[in-house]
Amino acid sequence: MRVLMFGWEFPPKIYGGLAVASYGITKGLSLQPDMETIFCLPKPTGEEETFLKIVGMNQVPIVYKGHDYEYVKHRMPVYMTPEDYYHYRDHIYADFSYMHTNDMGCMEFAGGYPGNLHEEINNFSIISGVVARAEQFDIIHAHDWLTYPAGVHAKMVSGKPLCIHVHATDFDRSRGKVNPTVYSIEKNGMDHADCIMCVSELTRQTVIKEYHQDPRKCFAMHNAVYPLSQDLLDIPRPDHSKEKVVTFLGRITMQKGPEYFVEAAALVLQRTHNIRFCMAGSGDMLEAMIDLVAQRGIADRFHFPGFQRGRQVYETYKNSDVFVMPSVSEPFGIAPLEAMQCGTPSIISKQSGCGEILDKVIKVDYWDIHAMADAIYSICTNQSLFKYLQEEGMKEVNEITWEKVGLRIRKLYNQCLGIN
Question: How far is Cα of residue 355 from the mean position of the Cα atoms in its chain?
């Protein structure tokens, strides 16, 4: 089976959980011997892994240019051969000469989330029409609202079934103050989809209620984690017998509830001074959180190390005695699973989708800063509780694998295609 997949992020370029989930899903699918994935990205780095076919949408022509073979070979990156370029060029379906293209007839992408994001989403969907005409595939899979227009276009062109993957909705990102443009893109993608995979039952219910979707085509498809490499497993845990470290790691935005973490920290520090707090990440609420820490008089116990990447993320988890995810609305939330893999007990909000599959964590309402503070204090001062959550948490999370997710996704593909 061949899947035409549209995504906005993929390792090694990671902006957030979407890249991690896209990698896990495609890797899980690749373990099935008859499964092939064509993964379309706005702007690949060229360093992506080769277990799937990567298509850089910035290398797919939409305007005919009569370049010779050597010129094309010189201009194309390693993952796009001149043969690929000519094959896509043969499937240009309209006159796009009015669009802004480069010397190869291709559109440039900034990659990530630039100021002209909506323009890039539209350009991505135009190019998807060329790819959908040129490639042979059985089913389409589009990740998050950024690629829904591309998925819908590919379905119109090919007549193949469309699966969309809802990693978050604008209700999660905006705390209910929904952007009407984003909502309409999300709703259009859902209306055209034959199958809607939601990262949790929480998200599935939002899709059914707020986007008025048929429950029979909506399925909860929880995320997972990949086993840690030996290199990451070998990162030592520092001795914190004198001072404990409690960590928040993620985007410092309204959705993630960072202010509740700060308020809970202030309550904990009224009881003890042997705990340090770390808020790792970046986001539009970072300065407000620094101000709040200062107002609460706990700046000497608080650290803001900034955005963490790659190995740094796991060093941060290993350097923590407690991981806290106080999200106001978290469709899934992979971070607690990663922390548990590192042997760090986790506290999560009851408003987090991952709580549907995790038992060996402490769950509190995001707004209940007293319960959150009690949980932090208990894990930091009760060695037996720390050990129990550490050991049982690692066992639990090691059973949550992308391979199992890949098998569940394959089952839904078969259902869409009418295969028993």
Answer: 17
Distance CA 119, CA 301 (A): 44
- d(CA 9, CA 238) in angstroms, rounded, equals 33
CA dihedral (317, 319, 323, 328) in degrees, to 10, reads: -70
Question: If we measure between CA atoms, which residue out of 319, 203, 330, 201 comes closest to residue 255?
Answer: 330
Integer Cα distance of 309 and 379 in angstroms: 27
Tokens representing 43 are 């702007």
| Amino acid letter, residue 253 | T
Cα dihedral 347/353/354/356 (nearest 10)? 100
Express each pLDDT in 149-204 by its tens digit: 999 999 999 999 999 999 999 988 877 789 999 999 999 999 999 999 999 999 99
Query: What is the residue whose two structure tokens read 């390792």?
Result: 11
> What does the block give as tokens for 61?
């022509």
Tell me the pLDDT tens digit for each residue of 295-336.
999 999 999 999 988 889 999 999 999 999 999 989 999 999
- Long-range contacts made by residues 73-79, C-beta under 8 angstroms, separation at least 24? 75/103, 75/104, 76/104, 77/44, 77/46, 78/46, 79/44, 79/46, 79/48, 79/54
- Kindly state the tokens that stand for 415: 């259902």
In the sheet where 53-56 sits, what is the strand order? Answer: 53-56, 36-41, 2-6, 139-143, 162-166, 195-198, 218-220
Residue-range domains of the chain with CATH: 2-224+402-417 (3.40.50.2000), 230-398 (3.40.50.2000)
Using the predicted structure, report yes or no on whether residue 16 has a pLDDT greater than 80. no
User: Does residue 272 contact residue 379 with C-beta atoms inside 8 Å?
Assistant: no
Q: Phi and psi at residue 365, in whole multiples of 5°?
A: -70, 140
Q: If you search the block for the tokens 């107002």, which residue do you land on?
A: 295
User: Alpha-carbon distance 11 to 296, whole Å?
Assistant: 38
What DSSP letter does each residue of 283-294 carry, written as one string? -TTHHHHHHHHH
- Tokens of residue 136, six digits: 């042979």
Grouping H, G, I as helix, E, B as strand and the rest as coil, residue 45 is: coil
- 10 Å Cβ neighbour count for 305? 13
- The dihedrals phi and psi of 261, each to the nearest 5 degrees, come to -65, -45
Q: Is 261 within 8 Å of 279 (Cβ atoms)? A: yes
| Beta bridge partners of residue 220, listed in sequence order | 198
Residue 48 makes CB contacts below 8 A (sequence gap 6+) with 10, 11, 12, 41, 54, 79
Beta bridge partners of 140: 4, 162
Residue type, 272: T
The partner residues of 249 in beta bridges, in order of sequence, read 280
